[in-house]
Specification:
64% helix, alpha+beta, elongated, 528 residues
């Protein structure tokens, strides 16, 4: 064979080998880009918050339910108003919660935020008019309340439904656009993979090694995905269990203990505890609840949230900064030095510390420990953050509920005490609202007029006297001057007999200085 032929064969071999390498590179690069684009399209769908498409229809349904509830109130007997008003208040709270969710989701979107601002402003007007309607109904002015409902409220209702519908349409368009782009990307990737398949058939022998490696990579990825999926499933069960505990909770400490227990049992973690930041001189972190161990580790931890040796660990840093702190390996983490020996002894290899916030202030932290180093991936951290946010909201709600209960108890005790003082007087006593409605009477007043407390409360004060205009004049003078003494009136006894009385009264106010009404004595005129 001539040298030039050898060179030519070698050249063809080199060219053929180069072409094979080139084709393989093109296939690899195209496959990589196609897979990357497909994953991006899938991520866009997964990252899109479809909750808006649920909350907006719910908000519109809630508005419709409120409108029907008010209409039912206007047509119902007075005896059923309290239960209907309670249901209406519950609907309003639900609407407020939905509005708050929408504010959080739309805050970075100017168009949606502008429409949401219009929706909130209209809803505020709607609620104010609704409150005024309830006051009118309480004063017996149902016809005016109906007129407001048909005139002003229907306009506000239509405006809110229109704006909510616009927001929903915008979200639907965006969702369709994201899904449409994903479908287009999927179709394009499908055509690319078809072309790659044809090339792959032609180059089957050359791609054998590549396919082998691809399959190996696939098996590895599937195994990794299964492990990641199992962890995500456990984390979701843990989150659901903690939310169930929050729904059942009536006591803050019990709630914290139940959540810690759910983290251990459902999340398969080694230990969990909740600590609150005390404002003492050492800036101590007080353990409120824990699960997964006997408490020895926490008892000896003596954690601080100050800028000191025991405050520079995960818990103290988290509370000071309000940021999530992850200890990937407790055996090497620099800030874990004061607790390293006991942590290793207990088998705590890594930890996640999540802040608990209320009204923009970090008041504590949730600490979760794993027996595996670097155990917390991004998905788990996000779920733990969601759990901590739920926990902070639930504990704050329980505190508010407890505070309301105490306030209501004090109010009942105060009312009972005031009632006992009222009944202790031998003189006829009567309490009247600024609008002239009787709000309370004592037994002496019942006997003086010959009517029961149930018959008197809610009636116009002036109807109890033979000269209503003069009685109204006396009531106005008290409201103007703050007091009146020995104002002569004639009481209308149930039997029809006139009773000459002297009317003396003072106004009374609440703790905030707001006028509450008039407190008066109606003493029989001994001079006739």
């Amino acid at each position: 064979m001539k040298p030039d032929s050898v060179v030519g064969i070698r050249t063809r071999i080199y060219v053929g080998f180069g072409a094979l390498v080139f084709v393989l590179l093109v296939i690899l690069i195209t496959a990589y880009l196609a897979l990357d684009e497909s994953q991006r399209a899938q991520r866009r769908i997964l990252e899109y918050n479809f909750s808006n498409l649920y909350d907006l229809p719910n908000f519109r349904a809630n508005l419709n339910a409120q409108r029907l509830m008010v209409a039912l109130l206007l047509e119902s007997p007075e005896a059923s108003w309290d239960s209907l008003a309670d249901e209406l208040e519950s609907r309003r709270k639900t609407a407020d919660s939905l509005i708050n969710n929408l504010i959080l989701r739309f805050r970075d979107f100017p168009d949606e935020s502008e429409r949401l601002g219009v929706l909130i402003a209209t809803r505020d007007r709607y609620n104010k008019v609704q409150d005024f309607q309830l006051e009118l109904m309480a004063d017996g002015k149902k016809d005016y309340a109906k007129e407001l409902f048909l005139r002003s409220q229907m306009e506000n209702y239509a405006r809110m439904r229109s704006v909510a519908g616009e927001l929903e349409e915008m979200e639907l368009r965006e969702a369709r656009d994201i899904v449409g782009r994903a479908e287009d990307d999927a179709a394009l990737r499908g055509r690319e993979f078809l072309l790659l398949g044809v090339i792959g058939i032609v180059m089957a022998a050359a791609l054998a090694v590549y396919m082998s490696r691809t399959i190996s990579s696939y098996v590895f990825e599937v195994g990794s995905a299964e492990k990641s999926g199992a962890k995500a499933t456990r984390a979701l069960k843990m989150l659901n269990a903690s939310r169930a505990a929050a729904i059942r909770a009536h006591d803050e400490t019990q709630l914290l203990e139940d959540v810690c227990r759910a983290i251990i049992e459902m999340g398969s973690y080694k230990m969990a505890w909740v600590g609150y930041a005390d404002d003492d001189k050492n800036k101590s972190v007080r353990a409120m609840a824990y699960a997964g161990e006997d408490g020895e580790y926490i008892e000896h931890a003596k954690v601080s949230w100050g800028d000191n040796e025991r405050g520079r660990g995960p818990t103290g840093t988290c509370i000071r900064t309000g940021e999530v702190v992850i200890a990937r390996d407790t055996s090497t983490e620099p800030g874990f030095e004061p607790w390293r020996f006991r942590a290793v002894e207990k088998g705590y290899r890594s930890s996640a510390t999540i802040p608990l916030r209320c009204d923009g202030r970090t008041y504590g932290a949730l600490m979760v420990y794993s027996s595996v180093a670097d155990a917390f991936d991004e998905t788990e951290i996000e779920l733990l953050k969601e759990l901590a946010n739920d926990l902070a909201y639930s504990t704050t709600s329980l505190r508010d509920q407890s505070a309301r209960s105490m306030a209501e108890k004090r109010a009942r005790e105060s009312a009972a005490y005031a009632r006992s003082l009222l009944e202790a007087s031998v003189d006829p006593l009567i309490a009247v609202s600024p609008l002239g409605k009787i709000t309370d009477v004592n037994l002496a007043m019942e006997e003086a007029i010959g009517q029961s407390r149930a018959e008197l409360v809610g009636r116009d004060f002036s109807e109890c006297f033979w000269e209503p205009k003069k009685a109204e004049e006396g009531h106005r003078r008290v409201l103007t001057d703050g007091t009146i003494r020995d104002f002569a009136l004639t009481l209308r006894h149930k039997s029809g007999l006139p009773v000459s009385v002297m009317y003396s009264a003072n106004i009374y106010r609440n703790d905030s200085g707001e006028l509450q009404g008039v407190f008066a004595s109606v003493r029989e005129n001994s001079k006739g």
